[in-house]
Amino acid sequence: MAHAGTLAITGLYKNYEVKGDTLPVLQDINLSIAPGEFVSIVGSSGCGKSTLLRLIIGLEEGYDGEIALDGQRVKGTSLQRGIVFQEHRLFPWLTVEENIGLGLLNSNQTEGQRRIAVREHIALVGLLGFEKAYPYQLSGGMSQRVAIARALVNRPEILLLDEPFGALDAMTRAHLQQELKRIWQSEGITMILVTHDVEEAVYLGDRVVVMEPRPGRIRRTIPVDLPHPRDRASYAFAQVKDRVLAEFAEHSPADLAEPPLREPLLAKAAIDAWQFAV
Q1: pLDDT digits (tens, 9 = 90+) for 156-172
Q2: Contact indicator for 200, 32 with CB cutoff of 8 Å
Q3: What does each C-alpha distance from 78 to 18, 72, 151, 189, 273 come to in angstroms?
Q4: Exposure string over 88-124, b if 16+ CB within 10 A, otherwise e
Q5: Is residue 140, in this structure, part of any structural domain at all?
Q6: Is 26 helix (H, G, I), strand (E, B) or coil?
Q7: Residue 263 to residue 268: CA distance in whole angstroms
Q8: DSSP secondary structure, 116-144, as one string
Q9: How far apart, in whole angstroms, are the C-alpha atoms of residue 214 and residue 255?
Q10: Containing domain of residue 204, as a range?
Q11: Domain for residue 35, yes or no?
């Protein structure tokens, strides 16, 4: 089992410079996440959820404030922090085991230790028998399982998930939510999920952090005091879900729309994320 990290974000501000103008993206973010905790982050488009994840993983820098993992300031990418994106980003010319093995490229393990780790994580995500399969032979859900295994294979202290099931159909999504919960309970590491799906956030999270846009800031943090396994059809589950949804009721459609300068920033983020994945 991996060591679970403690994440502390204090007084975080992030701005972008766009065509000579300053665009504030995050404002005074303060968030502490305990070892082994699962925190869901929800918010409308443009509230800075994905930017916050990129800062935590180390894909972006140039911020004010502090992001610390186990008391050490986050600087650049690290094997201590894993990430899974909405697109699985598997290499089509590599098999399942080879794609997962990429997560160990910078580790100091022996070749034998790497083989064992890859095999253990193929089993962890339920893909035994598909070791030699190529991405084109897998479903979307199976491909995301490979991406999760690749992110976990080096035993990170914290796993970040940026809309990992957003491109999947409803049934596959629900099944992988259950699988992710099982993996989290098995591995015991800290997880942070960014999602637009409030039901998903409540189903998985110990807490739901609700963000609001322009600039992105934390509006409220709602505890999810429900035992696992959670019943989506229960009254208690509906109550928590309604509490989260109520936080969006005050926003007008204009407030929830994409900001005009968001598109080029997303393009830059996609390029950065691909470079990181490679």
Answers
A1: 999 999 999 988 999 99
A2: no
A3: 28, 12, 12, 16, 14
A4: bbbeeeebbbebbbbbbeeeeeeeeebeebbeebbeb
A5: no
A6: strand
A7: 9
A8: HHHHHHHHHTT-TT-TT--GGGS-HHHHH
A9: 8
A10: 7-80+156-277
A11: yes
Kindly report the backbone phi and psi dihedral angles of residue 242, in degrees, each rounded to the nearest multiple of 5, phi listed first.
-65, -35
Q: Do 12 and 29 form a contact (C-beta atoms < 8 A)?
A: yes
Q: What are the structure tokens assigned to 82, written together?
A: 């894993």
Element (DSSP H or E) covering residue 148: helix 140-152
Q: What is the tally of structural domains in the chain?
A: 1
For residue 204, give the CATH number of its domain: 3.40.50.300
Torsion angle, alpha carbons of 180, 186, 192, 196, to 10: 20
Residue with tokens 């005074």: 28
CA separation for the pair 147, 161 (Å, rounded):
11
Using one digit for the tens of pLDDT, what is the confidence trace for 244-278? 999 987 655 544 444 444 334 444 443 344 344 43
Distance of alpha carbon 244 from its chain centroid, rounded?
19
Residues 87, 85: Cα–Cα separation, whole Å: 5
At 83, list the tokens: 């990430």
Whose tokens are 């929830």? That residue is 256
Name which of 84, 130, 81 is nearest 273 in CA terms: 84
- Residues 21-56 have pLDDT tens digits of 899 999 999 999 999 999 999 998 889 999 999 999
What is the reported pLDDT for 266? Answer: 41
Best CA proximity match to 184, nearest among 243, 132, 230 = 230
